[in-house]
Design a protein that fits this description.
This protein has ten helices and 14 strands. By secondary structure, it is α/β, with parallel strands linked by helices.
Length: 316
């Protein structure tokens, strides 16, 4: 299996529409959409849509965990579930039709015991044998210390497998070594280095600090509506965004990671892998809920990026 994903804090993502959002009033919503969510699961959905082999590992418990497993299965994702004593979480996103704004309510998730955490690591260790990449994505739930991803990175490196990491906060701050590629947002990168990053030069310098410190070999900074930035020891490249009508921004960053992982698994160079990531993220923006983009649309966007080198420039 080329790609293994780990989601330590998965969720059932509930999405819906209402005419307007106002305090106190009951806001009648349309029938909800339910998606399996959490960073690694979203990554796995993109990988599967693009036709590559993937296994999603995640903890799940209670009736919500059972429903989450059903949703993952329905999405056609091979998975390994680690049972937990506490129930899995649900997150809610509501789109207000009058303003076009989306309101997101994110809950902390179950508290994982040390035994449950160990079982998650053991599952990755088993499934990573023969994998090309392990992708760890998303927040850490209550009870899991910020050093967890560093423990995972050391374990994966010992197996000779490359790790891709997309997380934030204390979990990102705790990373010291062993990650192949890390994908912070520009806000997360600024928090990590402890200063504002107003321009491209400052963003490149901050990303290169991580490379120089051997935290990661590759840094891909998501810049939102300003595109993305690829930084290694030897290069820095800026990629322009693709303007599209946005239906939902949830999961677009995860789709980007999934596209990059697929590109790398197929043997693409870093720049082309990032192009595939941008194509996947852009396609995801046009779907409802946390759904990945259609494969045909991702491939169409990718081919357009490959044939037009204008969106890529040396970052200064």
């Amino acid at each position: 299996m080329p790609i293994v994903t780990l989601t330590m804090n998965p969720a059932i993502d509930v999405a819906g529409h209402t005419d307007r959002v106002a305090p106190t009033d009951k806001m009648r919503c349309e029938a909800p959409r339910f998606d399996p969510g959490g960073g690694g699961i979203n990554v796995a959905r993109t990988v599967a849509v693009l036709g590559e082999s993937v296994t999603a590992i995640y903890p799940a418990g209670g009736h919500t965990g059972a429903f989450l497993e059903q949703l993952v299965h329905a999405a056609g994702i091979p998975s390994h579930t680690v049972p937990t004593a506490e129930p899995s979480r649900e997150n809610i996103a509501v789109h207000a039709d009058d303003t076009g704004e989306q309101y997101r309510f994110v809950f902390p998730g179950p508290r994982l015991t040390p035994v449950e955490q160990h079982r998650c690591l053991a599952a990755v260790e088993r499934h990573a044998a023969g994998a090309d990449y392990v992708v760890a994505s998303g927040s850490l739930p209550p009870g899991v210390g910020p050093e967890f991803y560093q423990i995972l990175a050391d374990m994966v490196a010992a197996q000779g497998v490359r790790m891709i990491l997309d997380t934030s906060g204390a979990a990102l701050h705790a990373i010291r070594r062993g990650v192949f590629l890390v994908k912070p947002s520009v806000r997360e990168l600024a928090q990590l280095v402890g200063r504002t990053l107003p321009g491209r030069a400052e963003q490149v310098a901050a990303a290169r600090e991580l490379v120089t410190a051997e935290v990661a070999e590759v840094v891909v900074v998501s810049l939102g509506v300003e595109g993305a930035l690829l930084v290694t020891t030897e290069l820095s490249r800026w990629f322009a965004p693709i303007p599209v009508p946005v239906r939902s921004g949830i999961g677009a960053g995860d789709a980007m990671v999934g596209g990059i992982a697929v590109g790398l698994t197929r043997g693409s160079g870093l720049e082309d892998a990032v192009r595939l990531g941008i194509a996947a993220a852009t396609a995801a923006l046009t779907t409802s809920g946390t759904g990945p983009g259609l494969r045909a649309r991702v491939e169409q966007l990718y081919e357009a990026l490959v044939s037009d080198h204008e969106p890529v420039a040396e970052a200064r």
